[in-house]
Amino acid sequence: MTEKLISIEAIAKRYPAPGGGDTTVFENLWLGIERGEFVCMIGHSGCGKTTVLNILAGLDAPSEGVVIVDNVAIEGPALDRAVIFQSHALLPWRTVLGNVAYAVGAKHKDWPKTKINEHAEKFIELVGLKGAEYKKPSELSGGMKQRVGIARALSLEPKMLLMDEPFSALDALTRGTLQDEVRRICLSTGQTVFMITHDVDEAIYLADKIVLMTNGPEAQIAEIVENPLPKERDRNQIHKHADYYAIRNHLIDFLVSRSRTFKDEIKDKPWDPKSVPLVRPMAAPPSAPEPLRKRA
Amino acid sequence: MRSLSFRAGIVSILILVLFLGAWHLATSGSSAVQQMDPEYAKLMGLTATQGKSAMPGPLQVGATLWKHLTNPFYDNGPNDKGLGIQLAYSIGRVAIGYLLAVLVAIPLGFLIGMSQLMSRALDPFIQVLKPISPLAWMPLALYTIKDSNYSAIFVIFICSVWPMLINTAFGVATVRKEWLNVARTLEVGPLKRAFTVILPAAAPTILTGMRISIGIAWLVIVAAEMLVGGTGIGYFVWNEWNNLSITNVINAILVIGIVGMVLDQLLARAAKLVTYPE
Ligand SMILES: Nc1ncnc2c1ncn2[C@@H]1O[C@H](COP(=O)(O)OP(=O)(O)OP(=O)(O)O)[C@@H](O)[C@H]1O
Ligand SMILES: [Mg+2]
Q: Which of B68, B118, B165, B186 has the smallest CB count inside 10 Å?
């Protein structure tokens, strides 16, 4: 087994049920994330994706099991795991620069103010917000706010970037641009990312691996899909790739039907939640090529 | 079309002129002067003897007001001090009582807002203490503190503490979870979190409480000083009533209103400074 940056080991989350007893959101969940990997998780609403992410972030504690980061079990939130919140979560009384600098200052407590601001400016520029440093969040568009959130997380230069549907509140055009930017930045820095999404195309465009989660309660990871597309991809070209429809259909098929019936699918088979199947959907190999017709 | 505030200003001035005119007409008096025994005339007052109203008119009030304004700080013994001195006493008492209340209410409000346990535990006390009229504390304060000045300050303290306490607790308890989560993921310590996230987030709510408090404190100080006597604008009103100087009473009323407005505006400015649009 390769060395994992993150190892989720046998975590469970239970909430007290209204009528007594417990409801299990998920249990015995295992997942490893390697350094530099971009992992997306998809699944239906309410299956527990945010819960998994919050546990990874340390904002929530699992009822059972542990999460190990770099061989150390996590005990709470830490600066090495930066979160990009769905609702951007900017502090409205601080400027763009103030928001990013707040994070930088929290990480580098011994840095002088000028160095903190310089570092923050670098990341504000990286997300294309140069010139808006002294604006308050209320003066920004939704896409710009999300950019500040991204800059804030990236400025921490974390081991792990956690994103909970970061683009779901944006219009399609802005979403596309931001996806491009996040992809470019993460690729160039070798950033390890765990991202939740509802959007199959977003997952195909961004992810190296896609974790499929079945419906809750008692959700489980059904399989891990390896993205057959090359790491270098172009948003406007990927649909021309031979394997594009294979992976897309596989994901949609899962979301539409298998996520619901998965329990029956594995009923009589041996099932090891520790190592769920890793699949790589590919276009069916072209059946015996037709002989070229000779020119008359 | 002139701006709305300009037109509103014109209407305000019109209303003022109308009011002053009506006041003047109502008090200038024109009832027939009766012939009477001078001893009896003394008892009847000016209305009967000179055809003048006992109620001072705006010109009279304006003249004394001018006298007060030009010489606000004279001091001719305990019963004859300038309006400025009396106001200074009142403002001083309000300031001390109010600041003490701030020092108690804001940290305590933080505690209540941050701890479910303390919130539940202190709630019954707050619910019982809050509706007590601040003046009801006066005898107890006089009995225990044995100093009328400190008792007045205590009454100001007790009346301004509740709105600040309740608003602070509410503001702190309702800070957005996501902002707290930001601080948590950044490993910001509890003290720094209180000052850099909770305080700015709750500041508008806290200042609303402070603004309500200063209003109440200024209402209460007049009544408190009427009770404890000695100095202050409340005592001044009472003293002038005993002197039957309605002119001075009206002057004092006017000044009380203006100072109250200024205090409220100061807090409103401060609130504006800490308000953030979302
Ligand atoms: N505090 C709570 N008490 C009880 N149940 C909870 C609580 N928080 C979450 N749950 C339950 O846990 C389950 C998983 O919630 P979670 O927010 O992780 O879903 P999700 O997969 O992120 O959904 P979505 O895609 O809609 O964001 C839900 O069914 C929800 O009802
Ligand atoms: Mg969610």
A: B118
- Could you report the predicted ipTM of this complex, rounded to two decimals? 0.86
Among residues A96, A94, A7, which one has the least CA distance to residue A56? A7
| A88 to chain B: closest CA residue | B178
Tell the burial category of B276 from Cβ atoms under 10 Å away from its Cβ (0-12, 13-18, 19+).
middle
Contact check, Cβ <8 Å, B185/A91: no
pLDDT band at A239 (very low <50, low <70, confident <90, very high): confident
Percentage of chain B modeled with pLDDT above 70: 91
DSSP for residue A134: T
What pTM does this model have? 0.84
Domains of chain B from N-terminus onward? 83-274 (1.10.3720.10)
Q: Closest to A92 (Cβ–Cβ): which among B184, B185, B276?
A: B276
Query: Length of chain B in residues, anyone?
Result: 278
Nearest to B187 among A77, A102, A138 (CB): A77
pLDDT tens profile A7-42: 999 999 999 988 888 888 998 999 999 999 999 999
Residue of B178, B184, B186, B199 to mutate for A, most A C-beta atoms under 10 A: B186
Domains of chain A by residue range: 4-80+158-279, 87-157
The fold of the A4-80+158-279 domain, in CATH, is: Rossmann fold (3.40.50)
Q: Is A12 helix (H, G, I), strand (E, B) or coil?
A: strand
Confidence band for A266, pLDDT divided at 50, 70 and 90: confident
Q: What is the pLDDT of residue A1?
A: 46
SS3 A281: coil
Residue B240's alpha-carbon distances to A155, B229, B244, B248, B252, in angstroms, are 69, 12, 6, 6, 9
**Residues of chain A contacting residue B182, judged by C-beta atoms under 8 Å apart:** 85, 89, 91
